[in-house]
Design goal:
By secondary structure, the protein is of the alpha+beta class. It contains seven helices and five strands, in the order H-H-E-E-H-H-E-H-E-E-H-H. Helix 2 runs antiparallel to helix 7.
Length: 176
């Protein structure tokens, strides 16, 4: 799956969900926030259309302005697999300007991140999580000690995205 097509509208990397759904994403995120996760980015892909939710608009603006999308090693790895759980420190082979993108994340205070991608029923779900604390081994902590919380969180977000798409495809009309 070529995510460059999905990212074609890089002018709008901010949240696209209605407020009701944003609040539900924030509610789901709270379970990880209590564990030291400060940043959450969600990308849902359905039929070539991407839907985004992000808790750090300044980072997304910088990411867009610096054109990091063109040199993002996390994006490169996620594109090529239907399922992956990738602690950011595991990215050891960087192409061209990919180091600049990873250093950009650090300069914005996004450390010890974890990216998860999974495909299910012809949809792709991508989660990026990070902490602002250099010393907090967030990826390791979530994977080794809080995997149940992490799995519940990803399932909740996937279900929320599916509900959103269902409402978009089959809107309920009110008769007055």
């Amino acid at each position: 799956m070529d995510m460059d097509v999905q990212f074609a509208d890089v002018n709008n990397l901010h949240n696209i969900f209605p407020e009701k759904f944003e609040l539900q994403f924030y509610k789901a995120f709270r379970s990880l926030k209590h564990l030291g996760c400060d940043y959450f980015y969600f990308l849902g892909l359905d039929s070539g259309v991407s839907y985004r939710f992000c808790t750090h608009e300044n980072w997304i603006d910088f990411y867009k302005d610096e054109k990091f999308i063109l040199n993002d090693p996390l994006k490169r790895v996620v594109e090529s697999t239907p399922f992956i759980i990738l602690p950011w420190e595991q990215i050891s082979f960087l192409h061209g300007n990919e180091k600049k993108t990873m250093y950009g994340r650090i300069s914005f205070g996004l450390f010890n991140g974890l990216t998860i991608a999974r495909e299910h029923k012809k949809r792709k779900y991508v989660f990026a999580l990070a902490t602002e604390l250099k010393e907090h081994e967030l990826a390791r902590y979530l994977l080794l000690e809080k995997i149940d919380t992490l799995e519940k969180f990803t399932c909740d977000c996937m279900r929320l995205f599916d509900q959103y798409l269902m409402l978009m495809l089959n809107p309920v009309t009110l008769v007055m």
